[in-house]
């Protein structure tokens, strides 16, 4: 019989909670089918509090504890709204897979005791929805020496493997890439900034939450000196396995690079877009000379970013996961539904070749309803 799972995701951009109801059949490999999906808005005051917690500051423990409960409630509200939209009862859903909201990611090499912290209390989610919740997916991989991210490559391998060379790129606040080889191999890592700095800059200058279609970036010109300064960030040259977040690519990093550089605001936006495209294209060409590049996440709707990727990857077919059976807007949330299913079936969810963990392992903790 088919199984129903819910996937919940809030990414680095902190723009909304993605919630999807996913049906998994019994075939091997298990093929996910999205029954319903919605983007649940995050209250602006809550978003500001989350972003403030992403950087060191006073009373962090108290703020984190309270936000953990608040975000858990917001995730539960998103779940209940999704169930109402789908006309499905909570009792019909096997489990929720919740990524939570990342507020700090310190991968191996950054601290003596690396860690990754996602908040959004799964106890609250389970209590308010009446559905078993699986959460805390990163830390088991980190306990085995891994980066704890990116988490999607095992899912990408399960649903997108092909006889052709493929790469799956998620452009959220940060961007990550998964390489899928025809022989079943998988590699990947976080490539660097995705939309986070583009959203920051357009918000600062135009008061918009994001640059729709990348139109503002397309109106500017890449500033060579600023581009070189940004590209000089040590992360881009670091060897994989590697993962990153706002701890590295943030407003302070951009402002330091901008110091003394003459560039219009639109030119800065164009340069940021080019850095995102260049880091993704560099990763793809390190993997192979050509193939199929499948883009998902918010960046899949940015026409300017896709144009820049096609310009830098002439030997690659650049499209979105829409053309491969899963809506690009919901792919990552579907992935967390898949990870929850892996956990409940006692199956591994990580890719040691990507994260650097010692071995495959079951991910996440289970919080019964």
Account of the protein in words:
- The chain is an alpha/beta fold.
- The chain has 2 domains: 3-147 and 330-367, Nucleotidyltransferase, domain 5; 153-324, ATPase, nucleotide binding domain (Nucleotidyltransferase, domain 5, 2-Layer Sandwich).
- It has helices spanning 44-53, 60-86, 122-129, 139-143, 153-160, 196-206, 215-219, 224-231, 234-237, 251-258, 265-287, 303-312, 331-344, 352-355; strands spanning 3-10, 16-24, 32-41, 95-106, 115-119, 133-135, 166-171, 174-180, 186-193, 291-296, 316-320, 365-367.
- The strands form 2 sheets. Strands 1, 2, 3, 4, 5, 6 and 12 form a 7-stranded mixed sheet that branches. A 5-stranded mixed sheet has the order 9-8-7-10-11, sandwiched between helices.
- The longest helix has 27 residues, at 60-86.
- The chain is globular and about 60 Å long.
Distance between the termini: 22 Å
Q: Major β-sheet, in short?
A: 7 strands, mixed
Report the portion of residues in β strands. Answer: 15-25%
Based on secondary structure, the structural category is alpha/beta
Count structural domains: 2
CATH topology-level name of the largest domain = Nucleotidyltransferase, domain 5
Order of helices and strands: EEEHHEEHEHHEEEHHHHHHEHEHHE
Broad CATH class of the largest domain: Alpha Beta
Uncertain segments are none
- What percent of the residues sit in helical stretches (DSSP H or I)? 25-40%
Summarize the structure.
The protein is an alpha/beta fold and 369 residues long.
Features:
369 residues, alpha/beta, Nucleotidyltransferase, domain 5, 2 domains, 7-stranded mixed beta sheet, 5-stranded mixed beta sheet, 12 strands
């Amino acid at each position: 019989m088919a199984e129903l799972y819910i996937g919940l995701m809030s990414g680095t951009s902190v723009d909304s909670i993605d919630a999807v109801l996913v049906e998994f059949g019994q075939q091997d490999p298990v093929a996910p089918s999205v029954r319903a999906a919605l983007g649940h808005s995050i209250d602006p005051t809550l978003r500001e509090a989350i972003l403030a917690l992403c950087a060191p500051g006073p009373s962090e423990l108290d703020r984190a504890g309270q936000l953990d409960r608040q975000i858990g409630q917001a995730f539960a509200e998103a779940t209940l709204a999704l169930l109402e939209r789908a006309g499905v009862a909570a009792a019909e859903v096997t489990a929720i897979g919740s990524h939570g909201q990342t507020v700090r990611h310190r991968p191996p090499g950054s601290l003596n005791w690396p860690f990754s912290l996602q908040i959004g209390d799964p106890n609250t989610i389970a209590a308010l929805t009446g559905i078993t919740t699986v959460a805390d997916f990163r830390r088991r991989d980190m306990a085995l020496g891994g980066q704890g991210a990116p988490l999607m490559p095992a899912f990408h391998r399960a649903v997108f493997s092909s006889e052709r060379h493929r790469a799956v790129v998620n452009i959220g606040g940060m961007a990550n890439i998964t390489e899928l080889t025809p022989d079943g191999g998988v590699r990947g890592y976080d490539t660097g900034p995705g939309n986070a700095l583009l959203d920051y800059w357009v918000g600062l200058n135009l008061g918009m939450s994001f640059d729709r279609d990348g139109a503002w970036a397309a109106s500017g010109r890449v500033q060579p000196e600023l581009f070189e300064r940004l590209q000089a960030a040590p992360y881009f040259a670091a060897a994989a396995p590697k993962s990153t977040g706002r701890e590295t690519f943030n407003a302070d990093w951009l402002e330091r690079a901008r110091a003394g550089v003459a560039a219009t605001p639109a030119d800065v936006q164009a340069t940021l877009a080019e850095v995102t495209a260049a880091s993704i294209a560099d990763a793809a060409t390190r993997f192979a000379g050509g193939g199929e590049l499948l883009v998902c996440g918010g960046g899949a709707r940015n026409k300017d970013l896709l144009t820049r990727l096609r310009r830098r990857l002439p030997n690659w077919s650049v499209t979105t996961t829409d053309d491969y059976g899963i809506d690009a807007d919901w792919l990552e949330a579907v992935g967390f539904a898949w990870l929850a299913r892996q956990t409940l079936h006692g199956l591994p969810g990580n890719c040691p070749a990507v994260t650097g963990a010692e071995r495959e392992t079951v991910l996440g903790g289970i919080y019964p309803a």
